[in-house]
Design goal:
With about 475 residues, the protein is α/β, with parallel strands linked by helices. The protein has 2 domains: about 5-195 and about 410-460, Aminopeptidase (3-Layer(aba) Sandwich), CATH 3.40.630.10; about 215-255 and about 310-365, Alpha-Beta Plaits, CATH 3.30.70.360. Helix content is about 35%, strand content about 20%. The protein is built from 15 helices and 19 strands. Strands 1, 2, 3, 6, 7, 8, 9, 16, 17 and 18 form a 10-stranded mixed β-sheet that branches. It has a 4-stranded antiparallel β-sheet with strand order 12-14-10-15, with helices on one face. Helix 1 (about 5-15) crosses helix 15 (about 445-460) and helix 3 (about 45-60) runs parallel beside helix 4 (about 135-150). It is globular, with a radius of gyration of 24 Å. The protein starts with a helix and ends with a helix.
Length: about 475
């Protein structure tokens, strides 16, 4: 694939897609249906959502043999949907549109509005999953429906995978299940996924468009201290809670060394052209060899920037003791680490043991480590169309490669040989969406712009060779 060819295709699509009101209403109806199906682990059903989206694809005319609702035998409510729109070039590798349809728990009594009723208010859509990740899921389903109904035949096959369990991967994860049991259905040259996105400033102006290439490795570690305990009226120095507290203090005080990937180096370089003053100068200074120590300290003070500069470990849960009048016999904690690419979970385990330096504190994996890999390359064939279409839709807004400090289903696909990139065309203000939190929301117009951007990007990739 050549970047020049991609740019010509992007320009041929046009600088603006005219969406008739009826078309927008159709998409809104699909989005509403998907959002209002509860897909939380405790009370919902991804299977119901997968079946609903499968019906829409069938009603649009996509052949039944190209639509698969895959329900794991041991998880009847954790269904997944895989579908294909066949391309005209048989020897071209498919592209995969990946989105998860499960959502984080939401209690009605905590929300201002019913979390499973889509409400449009003050320029926002409110609902659990309105952004994470049913926005992309609805956009992808809608795209295949329109392509089928309008007779669009892509050059390469477009595959769709709506998965369950991204939010609860240690209970069940659909992406991992599909890789293990139905790899042929989702195999692709690369995948488009959540994880990227654009930033708006306080006035609603577009600041940058982020593209995720790679993510840190998620790993929980279990810390535990066990001793005989005793009567609280006769304290001893060997107190399980105290020893655990000292261990957690040492973890909190430890700073992992700074590191860069090609993606994060490019991010700070381009971000320095957006920022100004001391921050801009510091971003350039940390790219020197060696980085300026004072600049690194100032940049690291920003939690968002610090999270992509190094491995981070933080205590997230703690438990201990068995009675208020007894010395604790057991104390334990969970330490959550987001490990910088290129380092193993075992290496981080050994580092924690060295930092804690107390044999009485047993440090172990809280769950089996996942397979890891280097970040996928942001080649010209991948990045070129994103930059071209971004310039058409948001002139002058730079595209910034980024690495995710969080986790997506890309952490399963990329190590398995399907490079996965986070790109959404969805612009929001920092902290605005509140995904996983109360009253999750998404700007209405940002959602519709994301739909247009992704439609044009999919077509560009699909007809690129």
């Amino acid at each position: 694939m050549r970047t020049v060819k991609f740019l010509a295709l992007a320009l041929a699509i046009g600088s603006s897609t005219a969406w008739p009101d009826s078309d927008r209403a159709s998409f809104r109806g699909l989005y509403k249906e998907l959002v209002e199906i509860d897909t939380s682990l405790s009370s919902g059903s991804c299977t119901t959502a997968a079946q609903a989206m499968a019906k829409r694809l069938k009603d649009a005319g996509i052949p039944e043999q190209d639509i698969h609702v895959i329900v794991p035998p041991d998880w009847p409510e954790q269904g997944n949907l895989v579908a294909s729109l066949r391309g005209s070039t048989a020897d071209s590798d498919p592209i995969l549109l990946l989105a998860h349809i499960d959502v984080v728990e939401a209690r009605r009594e905590d929300w201002e509005r019913d979390p499973f009723t889509l409400i449009e208010e003050n320029g926002y859509f409110y609902a659990r999953g309105a952004a994470d990740d049913k926005a992309m899921a609805a956009i992808f389903v809608d795209a295949l429906i329109r392509y089928q109904r309008t007779g669009y035949r892509p050059g390469r096959t477009i595959k769709l995978a709506l998965t369950c369990g991204e939010e609860t991967p240690f209970t069940f994860n659909g992406a991992r299940y599909l890789l293990a049991h139905h790899r042929d259905l989702i195999d692709a040259a690369f995948a488009l996924n959540e994880g990227g996105g654009g930033r708006l400033d306080d006035t609603g102006g577009h600041v940058y468009h982020g593209v995720q290439a790679g993510e840190k490795v998620y790993q929980d570690f279990h810390l535990e201290v066990i001793n005989p305990g005793g009567h609280s009226s006769r304290p001893v120095t060997d107190n399980a809670i105290n020893r655990l507290a000292r261990a957690l203090g040492r973890v909190a005080d430890h700073t992992f060394p700074y590191e860069f990937t090609d993606t994060t180096r490019t991010f700070f370089d381009r971000m320095s052209r957006i920022e100004s003053g001391q921050t801009a100068a510091d971003m350039q200074a940390i790219l020197l060899a060696p980085p300026a120590a004072d600049a690194l300290d100032r940049i690291s003070a920003n939690p968002g920037y610090n999270s992509i500069l190094r491995t981070t470990c933080v205590a997230t849960t703690i438990a201990g003791g068995h009675a208020p009048n007894a010395l604790p016999q057991r104390a334990s904690a969970n330490v959550n680490c987001r490990i910088f690419p290129g380092h193993t979970q075992q290496e981080t385990l050994e580092t924690l043991r060295q930092v804690i330096d107390d044999e009485a504190v047993v440090v172990s994996f809280a769950h089996t480590p996942e397979t890891t890999s280097q970040p996928p390359p942001l080649t010209a064939a991948i990045l070129g169309p994103i930059e071209s279409l971004s310039e058409q839709m948001w002139p002058g807004v730079p595209v910034l490669p980024s690495m995710a400090a969080g986790i997506t289903d890309g952490r399963f696909l990329t190590p398995a040989g399907i490079p996965t990139y986070g790109v959404t065309g969805l612009f929001v203000q920092p902290g605005q969406v509140n995904a996983h939190g109360l009253n999750e929301k998404i700007p209405v117009e940002s959602l519709y712009q994301s739909r247009e951007f992704l439609d044009r990007l999919i077509r560009t990739y699909a007809d690129g060779n």
